[in-house]
Amino acid sequence: MTTSSFSRRSFLAGGLAALVDLSAFGQPSGLPGTASLSPLPNVGGEGPWDYWESGQGTGVVRIAAAAILSASPYDTQPWLFRLGSTRIEVLADKDRAVGELDPFQRELYMGLGCAIENACVAAPAQGINPVVRLLPELSAGDDNLAAVIELEPARQAKHPYHDAIARRHTNRLPYDTGRKVDQATLDALAGLTSSSDTKVLFLESASPGGAIFTDLMMQATQRIIDTPGLRESRWTGVRAAAANPSPLSAEVLQQADANWLKATRTVACATASAFGLIMVRGTRQDHRLHIEAGRLWQRIHLDGTNRSLAMQPMNHFIEVIDYETRTQGTSPVSSSIRAALPQNWNGWEPIFGFRLGYAGATAPRSPRRPLSSIVVA
Ligand SMILES: Cc1cc2nc3c(=O)[nH]c(=O)nc-3n(C[C@H](O)[C@H](O)[C@H](O)COP(=O)(O)O)c2cc1C
């Protein structure tokens, strides 16, 4: 097949790797009419993972089933979908916002970007070329509509990240300190960006930049625990992520905070091979940049999954930068991280942090809401 039917972005999303031609298994499937939609699965928890892995669903339903397996802040899954025969609308579910920790809804919109990316990876196997329009109707007043994915008929093909959708999990386990991620791999991950306003910067954990990243991360973790509004907001997120939030008393959550602080030092920072920062050129309040950055994160994580890398977002000091920016109009933490970066990063904002390395064990699946509960008319 040729790649000419794929948009530049979805082509780049494959890291310039060839899509696997599935035409031997059938001609372009075309677009399903709404009448031929697969039934929407109504199981949650691990059910959505089993549904996807066992190959169930077709067309837009299967694409949406992939979208909900993406990363999201605190597993809040802040999305709703409107499924049509020629387009999928992706809406922000603002009831799932965590509050003070995410005052600009940066993380919420990044989560939507992650879901959009998974949808775009799943679409070619359904004989669909996805064309994404971000925030298309803001001016029309529908400020919950984050994106429209137009579905164009295409020859059926399997995206190189397709099978990684089921295997990608946030890995919070210790990473192997004896095995470093080499520069060629970091360069390849840095090359996955598809927007001129979004980039990723890597800091080796043993470098001076890595030491500053660790210091800021530890200070921010303590500050979130010590600042009532931020702590409550984190607890909202922890409750959202829990399969059963009812036993999460304040006492249990305080213990969880102490464990979190310790794990940030002794596991997350101490065993990372490198840290990554997704940077955007523009303001940190711009939802378009948030969605682009979310797409980039999901792409990096899927690509890393194909390379057997372990990854974990680490946004403690990024959340503090947002908090300071909202409450003080300026951020001393942002100035500290900037001081550690080369001059050519002037004008770029850090909006997402993560660590990467190799882990001995696979991370567990996190629960999902049933697809039936997030498809709206
Ligand atoms: C914008 C964003 C911010 C996140 N921040 C953190 C973080 O600071 N620490 C962390 O451990 N995980 C973080 N995560 C990962 C989510 O908790 C994770 O994606 C969610 O629980 C679903 O799990 P999964 O990625 O394994 O599917 C973040 C994810 C996103 C999309």
From TrEMBL:
Domain of life: Bacteria
Cited Gene3D superfamilies: NADH Oxidase (3.40.109.10)
GO molecular function term, any single one: oxidoreductase activity
InterPro entries associated with the record: Nitroreductase-like, TAT_signal
PROSITE patterns: TAT (PS51318)
Membrane-crossing residue ranges in chain numbering: none
Official protein name in the record: Tat pathway signal protein
Species of the source: Caballeronia mineralivorans PML1(12)
